[in-house]
Amino acid sequence: DGGITQSPKYLFRKEGQNVTLSCEQNLNHDAMYWYRQDPGQGLRLIYYSQIVNDFQKGDIAEGYSVSREKKESFPLTVTSAQKNPTAFYLCASSIDSRSSGANVLTFGAGSRLTVL
Amino acid sequence: AQKITQTQPGMFVQEKEAVTLDCTYDTSDQSYGLFWYKQPSSGEMIFLIYQGSYDEQNATEGRYSLNFQKARKSANLVISASQLGDSAMYFCAMRDALDSNYQLIWGAGTKLIIKP
Q1: pLDDT at residue B99, rounded to an integer
Q2: For residue range A98-107, what is the model confidence (pLDDT) as tens digits?
Q3: Residue B3, SS3 per DSSP
Q4: Residues forming beta bridges with residue B79, ordered by sequence position
Q5: Distance from the B83 Cα atom to the nearest Cα atom in chain A, whole angstroms
Q6: B85 φ, ψ to 5°?
Q7: Which residues 51-110 on chain B approach chain A with CB closer than 8 angstroms?
Q8: Residue A108 Cα, gap to closest chain B Cα (Å)
Q9: Would you state the pLDDT for residue A100?
Q10: pLDDT given at position A97
């Protein structure tokens, strides 16, 4: 079955360390996204990519970095510059990102990062 | 600036009753899309229903329907005959071109608990 795989599901990090969250999709979708979710808040967009080797900053990109070397993969690195990284991170994909129509996002199961 | 407002942080509903989850939005664009997603305790976001701004009929998907009142900028989700498995967080989201460059803007969510 097609879908999105995020790993790890849980991750603990010491302050000052970089960590990378994996996101892989086999849906043949062009667009991929990373969102951050904090309690009591809606999802906030970190980065998105419309095509391989291209990505755009979202609303809260500071302290994060991404790469899109393959269509299937969109890893997110949470750097030590991110001041409050403890959160739930969701990866998603869609056929494309440049439409106001029914461009439905498919999500992974998420990764919960805790900074100790 | 565009905005999504979900005024109900939490709701308790008796099993088999219908439930309405509120969502109001704000955009100056004429072309936009409205989405509802469900997030069970497992964390994955699940797409439920979509309404386009030019759609004349309210969207329906099985037990889900969207009560779209364009003049009031309201897009409430109606779940008929609620089930225990409907207990989850529910998020309303909007996409337009003018302000969000086609990226989804999310509400803060409503936690729905179905009582047996």
Answers
A1: 64
A2: 765 678 999 9
A3: strand
A4: B19, B64
A5: 23
A6: -70, -5
A7: 52, 91, 93, 95-97, 102-109
A8: 6
A9: 57
A10: 66
